[in-house]
Write a structure and sequence with these properties.
The chain is of the alpha/beta class and 508 residues long. 35% of the residues lie in helices and 22% in strands. Helix 3 crosses helix 6, helix 3 crosses helix 14 and helix 8 packs parallel to helix 9. About 20% of the residues have low confidence.
């Protein structure tokens, strides 16, 4: 059972402010302020204006800020390592390329082929620039690829010392369409000779600081987007989308009031259309996509898994616990999540696994593998943080991570699991390891419980892998002692639930 959210029981503290010749009621949460237009003194009008602010979701927002912040710091470490490997590789490739070119000139060039050189009396005289006999370093970089298949970005200045630099591109969900827009696009401006000259002086090209872009797909007043910008240092921009024009007007107003309109981009439209447009046209994918709808997030999953870049984070909220954690409407549960929950105390865990299965199957169609970092049942909703990675090899393991459950729900409450496929590790003749995937033998249980004799019922298919990543949870927990509890009022509850989740990983 989830602990009660004490912070949400207390009504938000409001202050009356004047802004742009209008009177508003200001509500502060975290480091962000939102304004509700005060159109009258009646309670009806006040409630109408405050309808978007939901104080019970403060725990969700506090947790999301900390989780994305931990993810961003982890991503910075990954980018730094990639950056160092890339520069080392490019440096070696540049030296090898220059040496080969000079050897080629020495062995094969004739007087007619020498560019700008003439032989006079058996002596060689240079009339052209020496650089013409060696390849431009920018060209050698352009023809090569970094370790992660991400093209570096070149400019004519020195290498930046920003530790986030290095991962300047994204991998799209469509393997046949590389991403090169904005972050992943090589810069060819400036003259090549100048670029080479700077490279020879510094030993390496400049790699631009990567973007950390968040999509708040269903933003309402934009409170979540405002907090992401103000409380997560790595964020470069947040796209705050809502289908309601009045909501996006509120987002713009609140962004202006908070002084961050340069980093918040309000958009009006259908969230799925926005994500599909991003995939098909701009190719400028998001580092984080946050789905927080009223009801289920399933209709948005297909677009979301493609619109988040390789290694990005997908944050999912589903508020229809009466569907995903209940057996009252099995036909509805199956149509939404592709499986059926089970009856009993494990029902909410089954709901989390159904949601993860929906995310995993949506991603697998595009060669994308999922890694659950944190999966929680909170009050009346589920909140999940899932890393999306391009890995067709890992997708092959999905069937062996998908299970059905035989549940003795009317008897002793015991259950047994049946995975849809089996994976075995083999060893080749050279001692290397590889995996084989085959059909699973079934069934793993009889129609009646082996312990009490009552009938068993089927549940699933659902995600059968881990629900959490213990290293990610530990990273968030390590942040808590330095967090101001006046700003994050739900810290005690966050610590309690994350500790519980960390303990669950001991049994994974």
């Amino acid at each position: 059972m989830s602990p009660s959210n004490n912070a949400s029981k207390n009504p938000p503290v409001t202050h009356e402010v004047q802004y742009k010749d209008k009177t508003y009621e200001k509500v502060r949460e975290g480091l962000a302020d939102i304004l509700n237009l005060r159109s009258g003194d009646s309670k009806k009008d006040a409630n109408k204006q405050a309808v978007f602010y939901n104080p019970i979701q403060q725990f969700n927002r506090d947790l999301s800020v900390l989780a994305i912040r931990a993810f961003a710091e982890d991503l910075a470490i990954i980018r730094r390592a990639r950056h160092e490997r890339r520069i080392e590789k490019l440096s070696k490739d540049g030296k090898r390329g220059t040496k080969r070119k000079r050897e080629q000139v020495a062995r094969h060039d004739t007087p007619e082929k020498l560019n700008g050189n003439k032989k006079l009396g058996g002596k060689e005289t240079s009339e052209g620039p020496e650089e013409s006999t060696t390849p431009h370093f920018a060209e050698s970089i352009e023809q090569s690829q970094c370790q992660d298949g991400i093209p570096p970005t070149i400019s004519n200045t020195t290498l930046t010392s920003d530790p986030l630099a290095g991962d300047v591109g994204h991998t799209n969900g469509n393997s046949s369409r590389p991403n090169g827009h904005t972050e992943g696009q090589q810069s060819h401006d400036g003259n090549a000779a100048g670029a080479q000259h700077d490279t020879e002086q510094t030993g390496a090209p400049t790699i631009k600081t990567p973007q950390f872009r968040i999509l708040d797909a269903l933003s309402a007043t934009g409170l979540r987007a405002l907090r992401y910008v103000k409380e997560i240092p790595q964020v470069t921009s947040v796209t705050a989308n809502d289908i309601s024009s009045s909501a996006t007007a509120s987002i713009k107003l609140n962004a202006e009031y908070n002084g961050i309109i340069d980093k918040v981009q309000p958009t009006t439209g259908d969230a799925k259309s926005l994500m599909y447009h991003t995939i098909a046209h701009t190719k400028d994918l998001f580092s984080v996509i946050d789905l927080d709808p009223y009801g289920t997030a399933v209709p948005f999953l297909d677009a979301a898994v493609q619109a988040v870049h390789d290694g990005g984070l997908l944050c999912v909220t589903c508020t229809d616990a009466g569907v995903f954690a209940s057996v009252g409407f099995p036909e509805k549960t199956f149509s939404q999540y592709g499986g059926i929950s089970w009856k009993g105390t494990q029902g909410h865990e089954a709901g989390l696994r159904l949601i993860l299965n929906a995310v995993a199957t949506s991603a697998a169609r595009y060669g994308l593998a999922v890694e659950p970092l944190l999966s929680l049942n909170i009050d009346f909703y589920a909140r999940l943080f899932v890393r999306i990675r391009r890995s067709p090899a890992d997708v092959k393991f999905l069937a062996s991570k998908t299970m059905i459950v035989y549940n003795c729900d009317h008897g002793c409450g015991s259950f047994s699991t049946q995975y849809l496929a089996q994976t075995k590790e083999r060893e080749d003749k050279n001692g290397g390891k590889f995996h084989t995937h085959s059909l699973a033998q079934g069934p793993s249980a009889t129609p009646f419980c082996d312990h009490c004799g009552f009938k068993t019922h089927l549940a699933g298919p659902m995600w059968g892998g881990p629900l959490h990543n213990p290293h990610f949870i530990t990273k968030v927990l390590d942040m808590l002692p330095n967090i101001d509890t006046e700003v994050y009022a739900t810290i005690p509850r966050i610590e309690g639930m994350l500790t519980l989740a960390l303990n669950e990983t001991l049994f994974q």
